[in-house]
Amino acid sequence: MNERSAGHATFVIRRSYAATPATVVHAFADPATKRRWFFEGEGWTVDEFTSSFEVGGREHSRFRFGNGPVMCNDTIYLEIVANKRIVFSYTMTVAGRPISASLGTLEFSADGEGTRLNYTEQAAFLDRLNEPGEREVGFRELFQALADEIERAPADA
Predict the structure, then answer these.
(1) Which pTM was predicted?
(2) What is the average pLDDT across 128-152?
(3) Whole-number Å distance between alpha carbons of 32 and 122
(4) What is the pLDDT of residues 82-133, one digit of tens each?
(5) Can you state the percent helix, strand and coil of the chain, rounding each to 5?
(6) Is the separation of the CB atoms in 132 and 11 below 8 Å?
(7) In the predicted structure, residue 157 carries a pLDDT above the cut 60
(8) Would you say residue 25 has pLDDT above 80?
(9) Is 39 in contact with 61 (CB distance < 8 Å)?
């Protein structure tokens, strides 16, 4: 591909969980828990996953679906407000080619006995190798996997 491009998009996902904000945030902060719901799933192989959940901390993952190309996700945590907000930036590559750079904001608020999650992503999609609609669908699937993980976990982990 000789023609280079960058498309920009923002999307918002709102979701409710039947768990406290502390429990939902724990699923992002705890490396073993996050690996289960965020990277592991039917057909996925996780080759590498490291996480340091702190401001300035980094998360790196290398994974693939089936016999597909290696994908990498490299994240930097920019702000963490306990049980309220996580702001991070991340890049994605497929077979060594950059496909996107994003800023993500997770906001958590108590909603009765549960949690309201608002996720906003602002992204640059590079060289038409990924599209905003695909990314939004992917995050909706991940947030369902998070709900499944929370249902399996003990209350207020």
Answers:
(1) 0.91
(2) 89
(3) 27
(4) 999 999 999 999 999 999 999 999 999 999 999 999 999 999 999 876 677 8
(5) 25, 50, 25
(6) yes
(7) no
(8) yes
(9) yes
The DSSP bridge partners found for residue 65 are 44
Chain mean position to CA 15: 14
Distance, CA of 72 to CA of 95 (rounded, Å):
8
CA angle 84, 23, 149 (to 5 degrees): 125
- 83 phi/psi in degrees, rounded to 5: 60, 15
Q: Which of 99, 103, 79, 80 is nearest to 90 (CA)?
A: 103
Q: Rounded mean pLDDT of 65-89?
A: 96
CA distance 27 to 34: 6
Category of 54 on φ-ψ map: left (φ > 0), alpha (ψ -120 to 50) or beta: beta
Q: Could you please state the CATH topology (level 3) that the domain comprising 9-152 is classified under.
A: Alpha-D-Glucose-1,6-Bisphosphate; Chain A, domain 4 (3.30.530)
**CB-CB contact of 8 with 124 (8 Å):** yes
